[in-house]
Write a structure and sequence with these properties.
The chain is α/β, with parallel strands linked by helices. It has 2 domains: 114 residues, Probable inorganic polyphosphate/atp-NAD kinase, domain 1 (Rossmann fold), CATH 3.40.50; 141 residues, Probable inorganic polyphosphate/atp-NAD kinase, domain 2 (Tumour Suppressor Smad4). The chain has 6 helices and 17 strands. The protein is elongated, with a radius of gyration of 20 Å.
């Protein structure tokens, strides 16, 4: 019996490897009676399928997670890149993926996301963004440090003098946060992680926080730099400008991302493989 899932395929990078994987995926879906069609280079905004198969690396998946989470869509990644922490399988396992879809033999993990809301002069009222990995705040001019007050539920934690500050989910602990010296977190843990980027003080370290805490980042002016602005990014995909007199509020998003994995996949095995343990 064919699966009742409607499947869209996102293949934005038209390399030979990607095109071969796309052809193999479509052919195997047709053999198993699965309704599948390729999506455009841009993620769809209206009718989302039940499941989107992303052909590429983690960046391809991250480019679609905000809309997928808002529409309750499942994401299955076929890794054509390097690390592929978020992927369900590699490009040599496309037939196995289709077989698992046809037999409904797969796991779906709910991954927490961050909701970031800018406020203050120069921001758009009601504007919010979602991030699966992290939200990073830094100065628009590279090579310059920032001063930023970090508040937890309205109480000051610390004023950081650093290249930037980032807040990561457990899923994002193996991404930018890890490069900045943050800890490895189990992806289903109910926590967030606050990490200063290259802090000026050696005593400033990552802090693991409960997921229900509200984090506020308040940039502070430094002498001679009142006219400069900062930027914040979500998952390294979208970048937004924020003035010095504004603030960012970060909390766990009401939406979560549904990631598909094959039954044989487990996180400990992925860690060993991806990190070379």
């Amino acid at each position: 019996m064919a699966t009742s899932l409607t499947i869209g395929i996102l293949a934005p990078h038209r390399s030979n490897t990607c095109l071969r994987a796309l052809q193999e995926l479509l052919q195997n879906c047709e053999k198993r009676g699965i309704r599948a069609q390729e999506l455009g280079k841009c993620t769809p905004s209206a009718q989302w399928p039940d499941l989107v198969v992303c052909l590429g690396g983690d960046g391809t998946i991250l480019s679609s997670v905000e809309q997928a989470a808002r529409h309750g869509c499942i994401i299955a990644g076929v890794n054509l890149g390097h690390l592929g922490f978020l992927s369900a399988c590699g490009c040599d396992e496309v037939a196995q993926l289709v077989e698992s879809l046809a037999n409904s033999a797969y796991r779906v993990e709910e991954r927490s996301m961050l909701q970031v809301t800018p406020s203050g002069l120069g921001t758009i009222p009601g504007e919010t963004h979602l991030a699966l990995n992290e939200v990073a705040l830094m100065r628009a001019q590279t090579g310059k440090m920032i001063d930023v007050d970090v508040e937890l539920d309205g109480s000051l934690l610390n004023r950081y003098h650093a290249d930037g500050v980032l807040v990561a989910t457990p899923t994002g602990s193996t991404a930018y946060s890890l490069s900045a010296g943050g800890p490895l977190l189990w992806p289903t843990a109910d926590v967030m992680c606050l990490t200063p980027i290259c802090p000026h003080s050696l005593t400033n370290r990552s802090v693991v926080l409960p997921e229900d805490v509200e984090i506020t980042l308040r940039p502070r002016e430094r002498r001679g730099r009142s006219g400069e602005s900062l930027i914040y990014s979500t998952d390294g995909q979208a970048t937004h400008t924020i003035p010095l007199n504004a603030a960012l509020t970060i909390r766990r998003a009401p939406e979560s991302l549904r990631l598909l994995f094959l039954p044989s996949s487990d996180y400990a095995t992925r860690l060993r493989a991806k990190l070379g343990w």
